[in-house]
Amino acid sequence: MLKDYTKIADAILFSFEAHKNATRKGSNIPYVIHPLRVYASLCEAGVSDVAVLLAALLHDTVEDAGVELSQIASRFGEDVAKMVDMLTDDKTLNRAERKQAARERLRQAPARVKLIKLADRLDNILDMHKSDWNTAKKLEYINESELLIKSLTSNLDDDKFNSFIEIFLGLLEQNIKSVKTDLLDERE
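The chain above was modelled as a monomer; its predicted structure follows.
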């Protein structure tokens, strides 16, 4: 148990270091707050799988902070690195291609990776009101989220993470509906 807390503390420090000079898109909020909230939301839901919690803390380090997967594998294990890899978008593709590729990759991902992605997307939706994105960009993100949900809910096998997925799916759908209604009301 103590070893697990040490790993989690190490991942928190690693994430802080990786994101130390970054802020959330469209705001001045330190970026590291995002993976910490994703981690915290999973803990609050009762997720105790240490590899999942580590991957939640590290999920954006490769994509957004230039960390190499080999660094994650050597420090946190191959299992965590594989989950981070599945959650990492290919930045060499344009946005539409990148999002399509991510949906296809996540459709085949194990339930625990889908769970992290749902928690990640939920945090992004909840944080959207703090960004300086215009209404059109926010609606585009909402529409992408709705497409992503279809990928995340396909190919779910009988897995111990499914009950957690249902919780985050419900929260995400509820918040998407609320934000979308607010944004459409703003346009009128």
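The longest helix spans residues 162-187.
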